[in-house]
Structure prediction request, 95 residues.
Amino acid sequence: MARIRSDVTEADVRDWCCQYLARALKLSPGRIDHQATFSRLGLDSAESLFLVAALEDWSGLELASDIAFEHPSVSDLARYVIGRFDESRGSGASA
Prediction:
């Protein structure tokens, strides 16, 4: 697992998710609606697992495989992930 990033904002997480989804779904990043559910965007369960794995690699966080189902939009997922960053920063984890 990569080191946990220390400089990440919620907007960074949203932007990363939009870039990832644009590549995975072959859409322009501007067509990714932050509020739309992943299933509405066309992401299936297997692709959701790939999203989570890639987000772990990018962020350095360890994430549950089902977070894309519990937080089913870019905005929801970004809020959750930034909360995890805040927890890691508060616990003294190395950044």
